[in-house]
Amino acid sequence: MTLLLSVPLGVRADGPDPATNQPASIVPVPPAATPSSLQTDQPDSSFLERHPEVAQPLPPGSSTLSLPSGATPDRASTTVEQAGADQSPFHFFDQVGEPEELPNHLLVVYNSNDPDSKGLADYYAARRNIPPERVLAIACPATETVTRAEYEETIRQPIIDYLSQKDWIARQSMLVRLGSRTVNVLVATRNEIWAMALMRGVPLKISNDFADKDSMEPEPVMQTNAAAVDSELAVLPVFGLPKGGYVPNAFFDDKMTGLGRVGPLLAAKIIMVCRLDGPTPNDVRRMIDDSLYAEQNRLAGLAVVDSRGLTDPKNGHTPGDIWLRTSRDLLVKDGWLVKFDDKPDVLPPTDPCNQVALYLGWYSETACGPWVTPPDRFLRGAIAYHLHSYSASTIRSDTANWVGPLIAHGAAATMGMVYEPYLMFTPHLDIFTKRLLDGDYFCEAAYASEPALSWMGTVVGDPLYRPFRKPFESALAGVGVPHTDHDDWLLLQQVQRELASGQIQNDAGILEKSLEVTGAGPVAYEGLGDLLEKLKDPQASRDVPQVYQKAQAGETLPVDRIRVGLKLARYFTEHGMTGRAEAELEHLRQDNPEEAQRFGVPDVLLPASSKGPSTQPPAQAKQNGNATSVSTTPKSSQPPRLPALPQQAPAPE
């Protein structure tokens, strides 16, 4: 049998030679022996096909979040050979699995050396009805970082031993050609474990082994065998590839077809590994509970997309902004109310957004803005992701990087990078958003968006979380009287879906009839005010103050009253009613003095057409422990450079 395996030169190793139980041997093979019919030099992603406006090579010297031109790992024709069988593809998947099967193929892994890990594993297993035989204890270091040897001995080997003991995996030996060399590997022919949940206590990342020269890629940016533990375990079904660099993800949905699904065919190639982790054990329990709550009710709320306004096709960072703009468009088409920002700065802490169900943004090294400014802005089950090279350098801190603070402030699921990944090897957020909206499990959406495995990405959240499992029509049919905020969000989404599809006209009378229904609450009234204001219709405009006042009267949290009050003051300012605008601002300051200061309520608002001094509140408050310092921190135009590799120690004699 000859199988086609699409990998870059020198991907990485994951298991012993089946005959000797030693690392797989590497044998030089003449280049001419490679059949021309098996060339695999096509791009890893069709991103440039989907976005012809940036179909240019990246400039030399691009920042480390963009793979510099000329540094893309060579593609080599790779074959897996075994006598007496037919040819079949190894890296293409067209199956559509049954979504309800995944819980029956999930393995929960905890660290017996961590005092909280078992309790969390038991809690998760009980909440998700996972049987005891699929809850595995391993004894590994109770640290976030492990060496390659510690990973192999205390994490990978105990897991593969357990799968073999339970007869959940079957493997066969094959020769894999990597350019001018071949290696003897083990390839799974059957694997009953499709997904894995690593509990808090299982290490997060594998440090780089600089002494392992043989595993290093020739390209400087690929000279690392460091990786996230999750991403390394994802390629568990295939053993024996060199350790350096990355493995192309067979499940990467670069053409956004949505066809591939978790199932037995995919599980023979990769396992979708997530972790339930966070600053505290209580954070993990809340993540589990919130995911189930949102799944049962259908996630609905505000979406915040914070881009950087990049459009220059020669800028290596522009693809990241295109992913975000495409995500925005997908959400708008689905009826979501989207707060979209394309300014160079991240959203300031004074922004009064609230009831956020989905956040996607970039680019700041440390968590900041409204996401770490009281009150917590996320709804139960919220998914939040901030793109940064080291966003998951640690998950145990509620102030450092991004993943830990997002979880500490209420997010139920996120993703991050443990070491420098390079932009094109981070989650493609347009794919992630589409797969979520299509009803995927969180683990499916995350892995479909990841081009590279055995790399730097960690997926943090319940792998079984399906935020849109409940059909929209069923959720809408359950709206009660009076409305909850969740009911209002569903009603707003329904109206905006109908507007986007042309089912209803964008007319004041129709909008009011659709949203001023029996039991409607403050969220629906605020949304109605926003829609009427956008009409720029004098007749409709006269109704805006009354609608906003209804919304404000129904709000209970200061952040919500201030947000609606600022919209009301802006309306009065833009329509020449300066006195009423100033009165509204004064009212906000008197009723909520502490919050008014926190959210930067000004003395006066200038019309949008005015060229006077800015009335925007101070930009960016960063959290430093328990203290809050105010400083101007724009989104970095140059992400941190890849640190120089230290001199490798000489091999012992």
**How large a portion of the residues is in β-strands, by DSSP E?**
15-25%
Q: Low-confidence parts, pLDDT < 50 over ≥5 residues?
A: 1-97, 611-653
Question: Which structural class should the secondary elements be placed in?
Answer: alpha/beta
Global mean pLDDT:
80
DSSP helical segment count: 19
Count of distinct strands: 24
Note the gap between the termini: 43 Å
Dominant shape: elongated
DSSP helix fraction: 25-40%
Report the oligomer: single chain
Strand count, sense and barrel status of the largest sheet are: 7 strands, mixed
Q: Tell me the Rg in angstroms.
A: 26 Å
3D architecture notes:
With 653 residues, this protein is of the alpha/beta class. Among the domains are: 2-273, no CATH class; 503-609 and 617-630, Alpha Horseshoe (Serine Threonine Protein Phosphatase 5, Tetratricopeptide repeat), CATH 1.25.40. The protein is 30% helix and 16% strand. The strands form seven sheets. Strands 1, 2, 3, 4, 8, 9 and 13 form a seven-stranded mixed sheet that branches. A four-stranded parallel sheet has the order 6-5-10-15, with helices on both faces. Strands 17-16-18-19 form a four-stranded parallel sheet. Strand 16 (302-306), helix 7 (318-333) and strand 17 (338-341) form a beta-alpha-beta unit. Helix 2 (117-128) packs parallel to helix 6 (281-297) and helix 16 (544-554) packs antiparallel against helix 17. The longest helix has 18 residues, at 148-165. The two termini are 43 Å apart. 51% of the residues are buried. Mean pLDDT is 80; it is low at 1-97 and 611-653.
